[in-house]
Write a structure and sequence with these properties.
- It is extended, with a radius of gyration of 21 Å.
- The protein contains four helices and no strands.
- The protein has about 100 residues and is mostly helical.
């Protein structure tokens, strides 16, 4: 709704949509498309300013390893890989595009 109607109207319509969906189980708008695929709506990183994030302070922000620990994510050490790459050559080519 934001990409179709702008921020102010989009927020209002989004709130109405969430309210009606929660109370009545339907959406006035259904599923909307914004005209571009996710890939088409991206721009090269070189066209944007790099974000210089501050170092984690251990109070409000944490390093990645601590964040994984705090999320209580765990798995067995010998757990099999659940993602399989069918075509490694295609994968390697896509990394360089």
């Amino acid at each position: 709704l934001w990409s179709k109607f702008g921020t102010a109207i989009g927020v209002g319509l989004g709130g109405l949509d969430m309210w009606t969906n929660q109370l009545f189980g339907f959406s006035f708008f259904g599923t909307l498309k914004h005209g571009l695929t996710d890939a088409q709506s991206l721009e090269p990183a070189a066209q944007h300013q790099k974000i210089d994030y501050p170092k984690p302070d251990g109070v409000l922000t944490f390093d990645r390893l601590s964040s994984v620990f705090l999320s209580n994510t765990n798995h067995e050490e010998d757990q099999p890989v659940h993602l399989k790459v069918k075509d490694m050559e295609l994968q390697k080519r896509s990394e360089h595009d």
